[in-house]
Amino acid sequence: MFINYEHDNHVYNVTIERRDNQFFITYDNNEYTVTATEVKPGQLVIQLAERVIKSIISQGDDSKFVFIDGNIFKVKRIELTGRKTTGKKEGDLNSPISGTVVKVKVKEGDLLKKDDVLLVIEAMKMEYLIHAPYSGKIKKIYFKEKDQIEIGQLTAEIEKEGD
Asked: pTM surpassing 0.70?
């Protein structure tokens, strides 16, 4: 999962991968192995190498407050920079993840059935299949193999069968 967080007017780019009970967090080209245990709702015990960190997380209106070792951090998730904002309309298909397009299985003009695979996107060494939400005809494909794609970007336009 790719996340951008803002704290004190600075944007931090973070990648988080969960394997079993551990989280692998990449920040500033360094990977950290972290385990986190929820003691009670909103209270976490986080272990980072030999360091044990007790924290409390509180939800605000548009941000979270994280209390660690007497310090208060106001953190809010922000949209990815460079993300294309598109109005979603029926027949469009927006990417649910960020990653690299490794396979385009359709071309413009192809007829497809509901659940046919349109694209394969790789993110964090995992492949995600992007399926057609309904049967129809491919009007336009916006990506080719090896292109980078961000969450929310329009991948294809599909003309719904019967329209």
From this structure: no
